[in-house]
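Review form for a predicted model. The reviewer records the input and the model, then writes brief findings.
Reviewer: anonymous (R2)
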Amino acid sequence: MAPLPNTLSPKSLLPNPRAMIAFGHDVVMAALSFGLSLGLRTGFEFDALHGQVLLPGTVIFTLTAAVVFLAMRLYRGIWRYASMNDLVQLAKAVTILMALFALEMFLFFRLEGVPRSMPFINWFVLLAMLGGPRFVYRLIRDRRFDWQLHENNSKRIPVLLVGAGDAAELFIRSAKRSENANYRPVGIVAESANRVGRQLHGVTVLGTIDELETVVKGLSRANHPRRLVLTKDSPTGAELQALLVTAERLGMTVARMGRMDDLKMDPAAGEAERLAIRPIAIEDLLGRPQQPLDRAAMASLVQGKRVLITGAGGSIGSELVRQIAAIGPAEVVLVENSEFALYTIEREMIEHFAHLPRHAVIADVRDRLRIDQVFAHYKPELVFHAAALKHVPLVEDNPCEGIITNAIGTRHVADACENAGVAVMVMISTDKAVNPTNIMGATKRIAETYVQALDLRRGKNAGTRFVTVRFGNVLGSTGSVVPLFQRQLAAGGPLTVTHPDMTRYFMTIREAVELVLQASTLGVGQNNTGADANTHSADGKIFVLDMGKPVKIVDLAKQMIRLAGLKPDTGQGGDIQIQFTGTRPGEKLFEEVFHGAEAPVPTQMPGVLLASPRTQDVAEVSAVLERLEAAARAEDVSTLKSAILDLVPEYAPPPADEGQGE
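Model under review:
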């Protein structure tokens, strides 16, 4: 049976030959310290009494020291990295040794020739003899590494650190200790002026972040940094964008230091801390502050419930699956039309949530009979409806499919929820539903209208609660501009932007789904911020995620080029060209998250707003949906668009000659 971690086995006490050498050194030092301390006490004039106790005292003291040193486990550390913690541990061991020896000397062995002050003198002598060689060895090693660094400086990339805190200190220490470090810190720029002129491990704080350009120009050619390394944990998006622009002007790239969680260290192998640097992600440039979340309310919504997610293999759907699975539902039903997408998310569930009961169901929301069968069989209590056709130009070219999937499909899911007694259905909507100029946006607005009408019909009666959550673009989703730009960058450009003034709202997929879950708790009155589910103040309303400020697509393209360490070609030379291709069918220059008549109302939860668009009676909406479905299945586009206008009078498609390029 293997010894427990805290037991004293020989293997754990002396794990390797180097530890045995260190142990032998300490035992020899203990033996020498006894005679040296006795000599210091007597002025090295040993009379007969002192001479009689020198040998037995040395033997007893040395054996006691060997036992104490082993018991205190002094040999897990590495001399090369001797620190104050090691000195404290040595002091503890020496103190215990002296206490034990005093008892042995006066109670058991009666060594009358040993002076009473001897343990106190020996404490200082032995501590110096144990600690001195350790720190001298570290000093020699550090000097050697300083010499090696000087020899290898030409091979290392000179970097300028942004931030003069603990992370910067760790980065410099790692670079100095590692023989294989790729970077050489040549200076630091700090946030605060009171650190200018001070040093971290010999690296000087040369100025503030605002003085970055002056600092770089003041460095010698040999020390001219080729990269800025951010050591701040959470710089804002505006700070990052400003640094990218300045770095490009100065011929540098920008990276950030890995998080403290990424620290890799193997003391047993004699390795120092190694912190890698990583590229800045496009998500970092959004600079969106983390919204406080009511985790308890989210847990109350999901835990112990049977949850069904449509579109479970898509960008939003798969993230819903991940976050919901982590909260602890009773079981999860994954509904997806794409076999490969369903396979992918199910494999992820098997790997990360193997204990959670799950059901992978191939089903299409367009098929009413199949959806009714799925709901009747699995009897979900909570439904998230994320299935939709989302790509504007494709839906514009296939309007009948857009109607059947986004509008009729939502009706199928909502009706199935009512028939199966589902407690809550959450529908994922989009900012393109606001004043739509394209079929995709119009179909999502129709879906919103139907779900609103059902929620209002419910009123104070028991039945399914319908919650609609609307938000804008998410970075990295299927069909998003970011993966497109990444592929174009990999191919050497150009990056294609439809219009110089094109703007969009963006947030990360993770944040969007977190806020969807948060909005859902508000919709059903399960938050801990004072909302009352019985007031019905949110019935028929739409929860809108606060998307922050819109981003110009051309600026996003430039930032991605800079993040790749390249320069955008703005007509005056550069690496990657940006090409304007003209707006696509149904595409707006800017998106809105509220209708003009919708006054956004803050909720109790930061990051979530409440909109009150017009509502219609369920019977009226159902009648128009019947006409829409008939026209779509007959591929009667003219009747289809006429019916759309009955439900979405603000739908304003561009003239036929627009959207074909400039």
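Findings: The mean pLDDT is 77.
Further findings: The chain has 20 helices and 23 strands.
Recommendation: see findings above.
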